[in-house]
Amino acid sequence: xxxxxxxxxxxxxxxxxxxxxxxxxxxxxxxxxxxxxxxxxxxxxxxxxxxxxxxxxxxxxxxxxxxxxxxxxxxxxxxxxxxxxxxxxxxxxxxxxxxxxxxxxxxxxxxxxxxxxxxxxxxxxxxxxxxxxxxxxxxxxxxxxxxxxxxxxxxxxxxxxxxxxxxxxxxxxxxxxxxxxxxxxxxxxxxxxxxxxxxxxxxxxxxxxxxxxxxxxxxxxxxxxxxxxxxxxxxxxxxxxxxxxxxxxxxxxxxxxxxxxxxxxxxxxxxxxxxxxxxxxxxxxxxxxxxxxxxxxxxxxxxxxxxxxxxxxxxxxxxxxxxxxxxxxxxxxxx
Length: 335
Known about the structure:
Blueprint: H1 2-30, H2 35-46, H3 59-105, E1 111-114, H4 118-129, E2 134-138, H5 141-147, E3 153-156, H6 162-167, E4 175-178, H7 183-196, E5 201-205, H8 209-218, E6 222-224, H9 226-239, H10 241-248, E7 250-251, E8 259-265, H11 266-269, H12 278-281, H13 283-287, E9 290-295, E10 301-303, E11 316-321, H14 323-333
Parallel strand pairs: 1-2, 1-4, 2-3, 4-5, 5-6, 7-8
Antiparallel strand pairs: 8-11, 9-10, 9-11
């Protein structure tokens, strides 16, 4: 966007200069005015201020002046339009950034998404579906102009710069998603963010196998390789197509016949702080959702846990159900 405006302004200035030089040379050569008089006549003609001529004009000179007035009207109008558009876009951009910064001041435990390419957009859509607070760092102003709205907060800048990460609130954020197309940029962001916030959960994208270990060493908690996942997914559609299609329906939100998955912390399931067995919670009867997984406080996952399993503090339950059942679950436990 900035380059487009700069090119338009350059063209407008060149056209203004061209019509001005044409006027000065025209009056100098055709009317034999002095250079000062030629300059004066060109200025009052282009600006259409209505002052009188230095001396009476001949018919041919009147034709020249008429053509100069017509051309200058279009060129000056174009120049004013381009300049006004540029100033307005700058002001809108400044106001938008101030609005974003004001919202960020009141945000904490939010998610920072670096890059708004294909993966960044998918991450943002999922976060919106979960109603999680997040901000996007994007260096392409044109992308921000196209996708910015009340639900999506953008910060203009390069995520590899510490100043931009600080502006996004990295010190009080809970998670950072590095989704830029460059492994080198993602690695640099991971390194910087980990130094700024030791407790930050960092999820990074990687294109090359060699980048995986580097991301981990730099401080990334999870490293995702979209190309590898895509290849595995396509192969699975050949080997176990029905299973893959079923898993594809496990979404955050969807149509009435889609299946949803949700996770709930121990604190939500047992607000009184007392550890209970899964069978005592009676989640199935209350919401219609089924418990399909359990994450222990140590990070161990148990698939299809026994009803007698005792929920421990700092653990999580993973449940499955239809959209209406998931909504009932959220209302029941205040998720």
